[in-house]
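Request: Give me one sample?
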Amino acid sequence: MRGIISYGAHVPFRRLDRSDISGFFDSGGGRGSRSVASYDEDTTSMAVEAGRSALANAAAPLASGIEDVWFTTTAPAYLDRTNATAIHAALRLARSVGASDLLGSQRSGIAALRAALRGGGTTLVVGSDIRGGWPTGADESDGGDAAAAVAVGDDADHTLIAELITTATTTAEFVDRWRVPGETRSRVWDDRFSEAQYVPLAQEAFAAALEAAELQPADIDHAIVTGLHARSVKRSPAKLGLDVVAPDLTDVVGNTGAAHPTLLLADVLDRAEPDQIIALVVLADGAEVILVRTTEAITEFGNRRPIAGQIAASGSVSYAKFLRWRGQIQPEPARRPDPTRASASAAARSTDWKFGFVGSADQTTGAIHLPPARASISGGPVDNMEPAPMADATGTVVTYTIDRLAYSPSPPIVFAVVDFDGGGRMPVELTDVDAEAVGIGDRVEMTFRRLNEADGIQNYFWKARPARFAAGAGNATPEPAEGDA
C-alpha cells in the first residue's frame, strides 16, 4: 500500500492587505490578504523550508530513506539548470538521491504528487510558487506565495498517515491561461468558456475515481477543489455532489499556483481524524482527482508548523514595498557596489556549510565552530573535528546592529551575534523582522534564504528569523511576536 508518510509547508511571514492596492492606485485590490515572499525568498528557498518541515514532522527519521526529490513550480530560479539540486543540498540528502524539476504549469504540481503516489520508492514532492501579475490586476491580488512538501512511500517501509485509495485524470487541449517563455505575467481567456470546459472534465474524473473506489460523494469527509480558474472552482463542488468542501485559503493566503493543491492538502491533514476520506480535485488543463484515507497514525502525527499557525503568526507588508520586492518599481539603490557573483568553485568546496549549514565540533572539547574550522579555539590537535549540523539549532541574540548603508534589496540590514543553544556563536543576518522590533535576548531559528543575485546566479545561505513557534512536536501554536508589523 502506498500513501503519505509526512508533509510540511512554508507560508511566508509577510501579508499584503488587498485594500492597500486600491488605496495606492485607486483601483484593484479587494478584501482579505495574500501571502508575500520576502525579498530574500524565491521558489527554491521556500521549497527548502517546506522540505525541512516534512522531514522534521516524520514519525521516524526520513532523510536517509528518501530516494528522489521532485520539485515543481511555475516560477523557477533557473532554466537550463536543475533547481532541485539546491533543495537536495540544503536538506543534506545522500548523493545517490535523485533531484528533478517538473516546471511550467500549475498541473505539474498535482501531476508530480499523482506520479509519486502511483509509483515506487520513497519520494519527496515539493511544490513552490510565487504568483503575481499586472499591478491592480486580479492575478496580483488573488495570487499568493507558498510551498508545500509531501513525502510518499510504501507501508512496507514507512508508517503511513494516509493511504492512497485511487486516482483519476482527464485531459483536454483548450486555451484557458497561458504565458509564453520570457513573460512574467499570464493572460487568460473568457471565464464562461473555461467554465464550460473545466466543469465537465471535473465531473468525468471525479465519477471515475468514485467508481474505482466504490464510493459515493456522501462518503467524502474532506473535499478540496482548487485551480487557477476561480469561477470553475466555485461552481464545481455542487456539480460533483460535494457539500464538505474545505476552505481554499484564498482570503488569507491567495492562490499559490503549483503549490496550492499540496498546501490545501496539508491544511486538511492538520485537522483530519483517522479513517477519513479526503478528495483532492484540481482543475488545471483538465482535472486531476486523488482520493486518500487517513490512518490511525494521523493521531500521533505532529506538524510543528501547522498552516493555521503560520497564518496567525504573520506580519504585514506595504504595497509599495511589495512592488519594490517584485521589481515593479525601482527606488534609488544604495550608494555601495552591487554584489559580485557567487563563486561556483568556492561554493562547490563548501556545500555542507553553504547549503546545509554544517559547522564543526571539536571531538575533544565539543566546541562548535561556525564556519567549520580545522583548528579548535580550545587548542589541541588540528583536524580533530566532526560535522556539527546547525540548521535546526535555535539561539539567542546577544547583540545586534542596524546597517542602513550596506547593499540590500530591502534596507536596512539587521545583523546580530547569535549564541546557539548547545554551543556556537556567529554573526548572522536577521530576516522576517522589522528593525525596530529587534532586541537583545530575542530567540531565533535558522532559515534558508537568498542573499543576492548577480550575473543570474542565485547566492543562497542561511539567515536567522524570530522563533515564533513553540519547540516540540504536535500542531504547535505560534508564540507571541510582539512588534511585528
